[in-house]
Amino acid sequence: MRPSGRDLSEMRPVSIETGVLKHAEGSCLVKMGDTHVLCTATIEDRVPPFVKGTGLGWVTAEYGMLPRSTGSRMRREAAVGKQGGRTVEIQRLIGRALRAGTDRVALGERQITVDCDVIQADGGTRCAAITGGWVALRLAVGKLMAAGDIVSDPLPDPVTAVSCGIYAGQPVLDLDYPEDSAAGVDGNFIMTGAGRLIEVQMSAEGATFSRDEMGTLLDLAAKGVGELAARQREATGA
User: Fold this and answer.
1) pLDDT at residue 78, as a whole number
2) How far is residue 185's CA from residue 87's CA, in Å, rounded to a whole number?
3) For residue 43, what are the β-bridge partners?
4) How far apart (Å, rounded) are the C-alpha atoms in residues 62 and 176?
5) Which of 128, 153, 174, 227 has an alpha carbon within 20 to 30 A of 32's alpha carbon?
6) What residues bind phosphate, as annotated (predicted)?
7) Which pairs from 179-185 meet CB under 8 Å and 24+ separation?
8) Is the pLDDT of residue 190 over 80?
């Protein structure tokens, strides 16, 4: 039995509220159980120097956790003077994932920055950030298309992410913190709504896993991604 009482293949309750910030070109608050992430997208008419002159757009991301997003207060990284390794790794992952799902030719030579701020954490923050980040990106791109600034849709399919793992010897979908902290195997699966893989992060956390078990986790992830992509389309009207 999972600590939450969910079935092995059951997601946590998911909600996506859009338009939560006045000034951002795209914004949403995504909730996956007790993990809540605020995502915004900002359009800029510039690109990094290594992209300038190529005609390609650029999508990048920043990620952070608020001091009381967890059980005890964390110091703000700005107060420490540098970002932690985990933060850097996660925001690079978010940026890679969203770029992989973007037609950068269609986007044109502009940059969209997706900011993901965790206001409450209960496992799966990077997955929630990618899922909500795509919604914010979709809304921002919709404004570019409505204004006639771009004519071809650069976001043909949702990009979403979900965690899976082996907890108490059983493969489970969408780990919350009690499961994540005790899982023998932990994985994050980033996929398109059509089920194409973008990135898979899997590691043994005290117990090895077989190829068959990995296949089972991939099947669970595909189920979860399908459900999340439907929520993304519903939220954005895509």
Assistant:
1) 84
2) 22
3) 112
4) 23
5) 153
6) 86, 124-126
7) 179/2, 179/3, 179/123, 180/123, 180/124, 181/123, 184/209, 185/209, 185/213, 185/217
8) yes
pTM: 0.96
Work out the pLDDT band at 81, boundaries 50, 70, 90: confident
The pLDDT, as a whole number, for residue 165 is: 96
DSSP run (H or E) holding 78 = helix 77-80
Angle at 100 between CA 107 and CA 151, to 5 degrees: 20
Binding residues: 86, 124-126
Tokens of 96: 């890679």
**Separation between Cα atoms, residue 76 and residue 58, nearest integer Å:** 28
Q: How many Cα atoms sit within 13 Å of 50 on the Cβ side?
A: 1
- Both tokens of 79, joined, read 């107060």
Token output for 27: 């914004």
CA atoms of 194 and 159, how far apart (whole Å):
9
pLDDT at 86 exceeding the cut of 80: yes
List, for residues 192-235, the tens digit of each pLDDT value.
999 999 999 999 987 889 999 999 999 999 999 999 999 999 99
Instruction: Please list, in sequence order, all residues whose beta carbon lies within 8 angstroms of the beta carbon of residue 17, skipping any fewer than 6 positions away.
Output: 28, 29, 31, 235
Tokens of 110: 């502009």
State both tokens at 189: 């699966």
Residues at the annotated binding site for phosphate? 86, 124-126
The tokens for 217 are 């986790």
pLDDT over 90 (residue 111) = yes
